[in-house]
Amino acid sequence: MKTLCVYCGSNAGSDPAYAALARDLGTRLARDGIALVYGGGNVGLMGIVADAVLAGGGEVIGVIPQQLVDWEVAHKGVTRLEVVDSMHTRKARMFELADGFIALPGGFGTLDEMFEMLTWRQLGLGRKPCAFLGVNGFWEPLMAMLDTMVRERFLHVEQRSDMWHGTEIEALLEWMRGYVPAQADKWLDEKRRSQLKLTTEDV
After folding, report:
1. Count of beta carbons in the 10 Å neighbourhood of residue 88
2. Is the sign of the CA dihedral 114, 118, 119, 121 positive or negative?
3. Are the CB atoms for 58 and 86 separated by under 8 Å?
4. Which of 93, 134, 154, 202 is the most buried if burial means most Cβ atoms within 10 Å?
5. For the whole model, what pTM was predicted?
């Protein structure tokens, strides 16, 4: 695991605990020699996690759309800043660069980016680990919603279990290093076998 992508808020949030979590994660990535891929911003938790990696002597790769560069929110001090033409290109490029994905507290953009990675994995387009790192119970309502999706049969139980959620950075990194995909190929293979059986019986 050489590179991790972090999705997080362009605001710092209402509680200093959010900034502290972002700072601690960035410091730990630098200490472990793990490069950071992130959205390239200099604001909010994005700027905090990037600055912490840089302060620890680590590598930071920012991927940012030209629109946000024009709005002057690009971090000019990162190791490498890649400017792309759209948000869609940004997500694809971050996927290419990263070995795994971590969501810190954030808003629409954080959820959009992480859930797209989960969807790609569900479709068999990637086999990279996804984790939600929180504090103060930030992700608990979302985890409850995922449980509701499983209960109402909109989400397979193995898809629900094939992610990490917690508050401890050490536990997160340990899980990522030992990650084995739990659901994508198995779930899709079962579906294909079921479809094949129906087709054969129809004949």
Report:
1. 11
2. positive
3. no
4. 134
5. 0.89
Do residues 103 and 131 make contact, with C-beta atoms less than 8 angstroms apart?
yes
Q: What is the pLDDT of residue 184?
A: 46
CA distance 140 to 157: 17
Domains along the chain with CATH numbers: 3-202 (3.40.50.450)
Residue 91 to residue 88: CA distance in whole angstroms: 5
Question: Which amino acid, 142?
Answer: L
Contact present, 60 and 97 (Cβ < 8 Å): no
| Residue of 90, 97, 16 lying closest to 60 (CA atoms) | 97
Cβ-contact 165, 139 below 8 angstroms: yes
Give the mean pLDDT per block of 10 residues along the chain (203 residues).
96 97 98 98 97 98 96 94 96 97 98 96 90 98 98 93 96 96 56 43 34
pLDDT at site 198: 38
